[in-house]
Amino acid sequence: MKLKLTNFASIFAAAKQLNQTKVGPLLATSVASVILSALPGTAAEKIYFQYGPFTESLQVSSLETFAKTGKVNPDLEFYFKLAKANDTTKQKFRELLVKRVEIPAFEVSQFFNSELGYDILGRLGQYLQTPIWQNGQQSLRAGIVLSAFDAEGLTFLNFLKKLPVNMTVDVALALEGFRSLERVIKATEFFTQKMSTFATQEAAGATVDFDRLPNLRQPGFFGVQQQRWVLNDTSRKRQFYVLVYQPQRSRAGKTPVVILSHGLGSKPEDFARRAQHLASYGFVVALPQHPGSDAGQVQELKAGLSGAYFLTSDFIDRPKDISYVIDELERRNQSQFGGQLDLQSVGVAGHSFGGYGVLAVAGATIDFDFLQQQCDRPFAYLDTSMLMQCRVLQLPRQAYNFRDPRVKAVFAVNPVNYAVFGPKGLSQVTIPTMLVGGSEDPATPVVFEQAQSFPLLGSPIKYLALAEGQAHINLANLDAGMTHTLNSIKGLSLASPSVLESYADAMLLAFFETYIVGNSAYQPYLQPTYADYLSREQQLKLFLISAASDNALKQAIAEFKSSH
After folding, report:
1. Which of 298, 431, 437, 450 is nearest to 364 (CA)?
2. What is the DSSP letter of 35?
3. Which domains are present in the chain?
């Protein structure tokens, strides 16, 4: 999923740019329609703009002429004047027309032939419709795929040229969607400022000198060794592997255990460094593969061996995978670990889809009625994770209970969670919990998936961290070309991957030492002052609040909703 998420990160930044440059309604609509598709493109011989009883058109050939020569034909000049576009805006639009998306054509075709791809196109087809006012889903796919395989490649302009029919933009609907996107951006900025304020208020009077305390960002003193297990859960006919990292010598007392769950399109190896860090402090860390929503599933889609980006059944299988790994550790405890593993107080951590799984084993329950309401909302897809969460509605509507009583603390980074669990489901999480969000996360936006969820958690011990410049994925795992593309986007401020890794290492260790091991010496690290300390030399900051800011956060959410 990394390429797709990366595209959404660029969408988020591009939307900011459009807002800042004050591009006029109709031009903004035509650009935003493409931006929201995550693939630069525009429409056939003509683009029609329908606004109430009024219809205007724009020749695709005029866009082509403008892109190649800079000449503005009269029909395009009409829109530029209406938009009050200056020379800078015109040049940006010209560049957008021919900006090429460097994704292999076959992969583009396979993705937009998947359920997830069709869902995205179906939602976009509400904006770009056929001449007989039908959803433009099929025509959009044709334009995208044909341009991807064409020598000119997948560009805004080539996409339009390859559309099989002229398309009509529902301007009123598109403008409403664009305004909703602007609202999300403003909400993110508002919430980031509030997090800074709440963290400062909680930190008042704190006087911890962290320079005199152990540096949790540095590796521990236990050597680390790795094993690879292949597990076979016959009851589910499910086979998967697990990477196990353990200290080379035991710490005093029982050995604490943590399960790390990877996200959609990822794999256990992506979190090996984090596991090694915990193991160097004496933890046994297990990282299960989740077949059906891992990197292997994505490769099968790309190769044409599967029609699904992920299997909906993984909403059931992922939490069960975690519990099965704990079961396996119990079976091997005596023979391989000398009976030293503490399996009655297990910590679980997960990223993105993994965040869903760990919250589920922590007690969160699926609320189908609430999820249906959320999926039926206009522009629900602006929370990109809703494209995943709404798939849960395909599952049998029954009570699912994934709570594992052995799990005693949960750490969820960029979790997919709000709509699928809802207020009732999240209230069932009563163990110590930390949620982590990123200010530049377009996949699980912090305002939807962490800020709204935090006050709903039933635990009296809970934390919410916000990392400025965190964009859901680790850029260090991307190819150089994509990293260069992201870094070239104006308005997108991303934190260094190594800095974000250091934050995660420190906070994860402090959290599990405190609530799994019961080591009170690590409690001072779970304060807003420590987050401030970690990011004191960084332009982009880390903020941390606790349950003490619950009411203040609720009021802030209500304040924003009432004023926007």
Report:
1. 431
2. H
3. 2-165 (no CATH), 220-563 (3.40.50.1820)
Q: Tell me the pTM.
A: 0.84
* Burial per residue of 64-78, b for 16 or more beta-carbon CB atoms within 10 angstroms, e otherwise: bebbeeeebeebbeb
Give phi and psi for 407, each to the nearest 5. Answer: -80, 125
Sequence-distant (≥ 6) Cβ neighbours of residue 78 within 8 angstroms? 56
How far is it, in rounded angstroms, from Cα 200 to Cα 205?
10
Give the ranges where 245-313 is alpha helix by DSSP (H): 272-279, 295-302
Judge whether 217 and 506 are in contact, CB under 8 Å. Answer: yes
| CB-based contact 58:29 (threshold 8 Å) | no
Query: What residues contact 179, with CB distance under 8 A and at least 6 apart?
Result: none
Tell me the pLDDT tens digit for each residue of 11-54. 444 444 444 443 333 333 333 333 333 333 344 788 888 887 88
Higher pLDDT, 54 or 485: 54
Please give the average per-residue pLDDT across 378-402, as a whole number: 90
pLDDT tens figures, 228-279: 999 999 999 999 999 999 999 988 889 999 999 999 999 999 999 999 999 9
Average pLDDT (449-476) is 87
On the question of pLDDT at 479 being above 50, the answer is: no
Strand (E) or helix (H) holding 193: helix 171-203
Chain center to CA of 164: 33
Compute the radius of gyration of the chain from its Cα atoms.
Answer: 25
Mean pLDDT over 482-497 rounds to 55
* Amino acid in the structure at residue 363: G
Inter-residue contact 202 to 228 (CB < 8 Å): no
Residue 217 tokens read as 């960002």
| CA atoms of 418 and 368, how far apart (whole Å) | 12
Judge whether residue 556 has pLDDT over 60: yes
The backbone region for 47, taken as left when phi is positive above 0, alpha when psi lies in -120 to 50, beta otherwise, is beta
Q: Cβ contacts of residue 302 below 8 Å, gap of 6+?
A: 106, 107, 110, 111
Which two three-digit tokens encode residue 90?
Answer: 């015109």
3-state class of 34 per DSSP?
helix
Q: Where are the alpha helices (DSSP H) in 99-214?
A: 105-111, 115-124, 137-149, 156-162, 171-203
Closest alpha carbon to 542 in 465, 472, 434: 465
Can you tell me which residue has the tokens 């208020």? Answer: 201
Run of H or E including 288: strand 284-288
- What is the average pLDDT value for the chain, to the nearest integer? 86
